[in-house]
Prior knowledge:
The chain contains three helices and eight strands, in the order ββαβββββαβα. By secondary structure, it is α+β, with helices and mostly antiparallel strands. Helix 1 (22-29) crosses helix 2. The radius of gyration is 18 Å and the shape is elongated.
Amino acid sequence: MRIPLDKIHKPGLKISGDTSTDWVTAAAKTVRGTPGEPTNDPHEDEGADTASVQLKIRRFEDQVHVSGTLEMQIICACDRCGSSTRLTISGDLDQLYKSPETEAGTDDYDLVATELEIGWHDGQALDLEAVLTEALALLGPDRVRCDDEGVKRIGEDGPCELPAEALE
């Protein structure tokens, strides 16, 4: 869902999303695997099992501030043993999006620590799928393993180990 910048006024917009919302479903699918890497996750085409996204979007000239909360549960495979797991990603969003015309938006640019919560919009609209995809990447784990925080194995017992064929 793209929101034109001229539709974001001073008081801001409040936007909610859940598992029935297209941009939430699309962003949830990006959590599984690494783009360009093969995956054996049987759940990779599934959306979120549960999702609650609450955003407040405010515009200040060419900058857009997005704040809010998200809580999402996603069924995915453990990256170590392949068992099905329920991954919970939750947290607060607080992100600033700048126009590509700013000095850092046009060329390669090394970010400093104070700029790590800055993203870029295209100068025309804010893409909520991209905002949520970025939030999930920042709040979620790099890899999913059965014994990690926020991960629960579904219906299987035993140790979380690499399959024997992977050890060869």
